[in-house]
Amino acid sequence: MQAAGTDRPATIHDIAAICGVAASTVSRALSTPDRVNIRTRARIQAAAAELNYTPNSQAKALSSGRTGAVGVLVPDITNPFYFDLIRGTQLQLKAAGYTQLLVDTEESDEVEASAVEQLRKSADGIIVAASRLSDEALLAAAAKIPMVAVNRDVPGVPAVVIDTPSATSQALDHLISLGHLRIAYMAGPLTSQSSTLRWTALAAAAEDRGVEVRRLGPFAPKTQSGAAAADAAVHSGVTACIAFNDLIAIGMLQRLRERGIRVPEDMSVVGCDDIFGADFCNPPLTTMTSPIEQAGRVAVSMLLAQLNPLAGGGSRSRSLMPTHLTVRGSTGAAPAAL
Fold first, then answer.
1. Which of 88, 122, 255, 297 is 20–30 Å from 11 (CA)?
2. Is the link from the previous residue into 283 a cis peptide, with omega within 30 of 0?
3. DSSP secondary structure string, 1-43?
4. Crossing angle for the helix pair 23-31 and 12-19, to the nearest 10 degrees
5. What pLDDT is stored for residue 314 in this prediction?
6. Does the N-terminal peptide bond of residue 55 adopt cis geometry, omega within 30 degrees of 0?
7. What UniProt keywords are attached to this protein's entry (predicted)?
8. Of 6, 1, 43, which Cα lies nearest the Cα of 25?
9. Strand order in 268-273's β-sheet?
10. Residues 6+ apart with CB under 8 A from 296
11. Architecture of 164-290 per CATH?
12. Mean of the pLDDT values across residues 285-292?
C-alpha cells in the first residue's frame, strides 16, 4: 500500500504518524526490535504491515553498515579468461543473497585504485582479479575493505592463486619430450605477477633440464599482440613457444599461418588458461587448463567468511588451485636441424 493520499511508497514517517511515535522509534522497532517496548513494537509492526512498508535499501545500508553488494574487479572484461571467473563469482554471490558489481579496470592501476576507493562506499567487500596495483597499494586497500585477490599473491591479502607455474613446467617437459631444445616464453605485462611467477618457474625448470629458454616481450594479453609475438619468436630462432595466455597464443597461430610457417611442423605453440575457443583454433591449442570458474567460487567463499565471521566455516588466507596441461594439435615434434 502507498502512503495515504499519495503515489509514493510508505516511509517510516508514515508509520510514525499512525502510531504517534518518533521516526527513530520506528526505525529501531524494525531494525533492532529488542530495543523497543513490546506493545509499541507490535503497533509499529502492524502499521508497517498495513502500509506494506518496504525498507529503503540505501537507508538500511546506512544504518546497518551493509549494502548487500560485492565488487568484482577485472583488468579486461573482453578477455575470455574472466568470463568463467565472473560466472563463478556471480553464481556464488547470488546463492548467498549478494549483488555483484562488476568493474573493468582497463589494465590500469589508476582506474583500479579509483574503483576500490569508490566501492568502499557501495560494497561490503571486493574481489580483485589479477590486480595491477603495487604490493603496498593492494595491502593498503585490503586494510580498508574486506578483500580477496585472485591470481595475485601478497602477504596479508587473502588470495586465490591458480597454480600456473607448475603447469608451465609441465609444458616445458612436454616440449622437451618432442625434441624441442630452444624454447621461448612470450611474457605478459610487466605489472602481471602471474607472468613473473611463470617465467621464474620456467627458467628454473629449464636450467635443471639443460635446455635453452628465452624470455621475449612483454606483450599485452590480447590477440592483437600475437602478431608481434610470432614475429619475435621466428626472429629468435626458437622452435617452440609458451605464451602468457591463450589470447597471445591464438594471435600467434594466425600470424604464423600468414607467414607460411606451419604449426606444429615448423613451430609449436602452447597457451595458458584454456579459454572458451582454445580447442576451436586451427590447429587446436595445447594449453594449461585452469579451474577458472571454481576460483571465482572459492574467492567468494573466502570473502563471505570475512564478512560473516560468526557464521562459522573458518577463514582461509590463501587457496591454491591446481592446473594441468591439455595437449592438442598446436604442439608436435621439433623440426629436423638443417
1. 122
2. yes
3. -BPTTSSSBP-HHHHHHHHTS-HHHHHHHHH-GGGS-HHHHHH
4. 110
5. 55
6. no
7. DNA-binding, Transcription, Transcription regulation
8. 43
9. 212-216, 182-186, 240-243, 268-273, 286-289, 324-326
10. 84, 85, 86, 87, 88, 89, 90, 92, 127, 150
11. 3-Layer(aba) Sandwich (3.40)
12. 96
Q: Is 214 helix (H, G, I), strand (E, B) or coil?
A: strand
| Beta-bridge partners for 204 | none
Domain segments of the chain as ranges: 12-64, 69-162+292-320, 164-290
Per-residue pLDDT band at 28 (split at 50, 70, 90): confident
Laid out side by side, the sheet with 99-104 consists of 99-104, 69-74, 125-129, 147-150, 159-162, 318-321
In the prediction, which pLDDT does 48 show?
A: 86
On the question of pLDDT at 64 being above 60, the answer is no
Average model confidence (pLDDT) for the chain? 90
Cis peptide before 218 (omega within 30 of 0): yes
pLDDT value of residue 1: 44
The CA dihedral of 19, 25, 31, 34, to the nearest 10 degrees, is -100
Contacts of 206 (CB under 8 A, 6+ apart): 172, 183, 212, 213
Q: What pLDDT score does 264 carry?
A: 98
Burial (0-12, 13-18, 19+ Cβ within 10 Å), 150: buried
Q: From CA 129, how far away is CA 122, in angstroms rounded?
A: 19
End-to-end CA distance of the chain, in Å?
85
Phi, psi of 134 (to 5 degrees): -65, 160
Which residues 6+ apart lie within 8 Å of 143 measured at CB? Answer: none
DSSP secondary structure letters along 122-180? H-SEEEEES--S-HHHHHHHHTTS-EEEES---TTS-EEEE-HHHHHHHHHHHHHHTT-
Do 142 and 306 meet the contact criterion of CB atoms below 8 Å apart?
A: no
**Domain at 69-162+292-320: CATH architecture:** 3-Layer(aba) Sandwich (3.40)
Q: What is the largest CA-CA distance in the chain?
A: 96
Q: Cell 566501492 belongs to which residue?
A: 119
Q: Give the containing element (helix H, strand E) for 243.
A: strand 240-243
The three grid cell numbers given for residue 55, joined into one nine-digit string: 525498507
Please determine whether the domains at 12-64 and 69-162+292-320 fall in the same fold group of CATH.
Answer: no
| Domain boundaries 12-64, CATH class | mainly alpha
